[in-house]
Amino acid sequence: MKKRTCIMVVDDEQAILRLLSRTLKxxxxxxxxxxxxxxxxxxxxxxxxxxxxxxxxxxELNGFQVLDLIRQHSNVPVxxxxxRGEVTTLRDALSLGADDYVRKPFHTGExxxxxxxxxxxxx
Length: 123
What we know:
With 123 residues, the chain is an alpha/beta fold.
């Protein structure tokens, strides 16, 4: 039996967590959610998702810090989700090892296409 692809969604906005969790489940993905960076780091070790959707602006550990911790141990594809649109933010995310960058508000169809593309490349 083939393991279902698991996507972790990390965002401190409950509305985003609900929207993405529902959307991804309807697409057939397994979903793990974390409402902050510390929870995400703990869950990453336990659940080992196939892809991470990671918000940048969160309390305690922000998305950049979480991404840095992920990259110390894993090459899992990471798509940054953020309301920040500055070129420097995009540059910083990509230089830290993000695989893609999607600005909020986003269209779920576009996000799903990006997810499929990253998963396809990751094998």
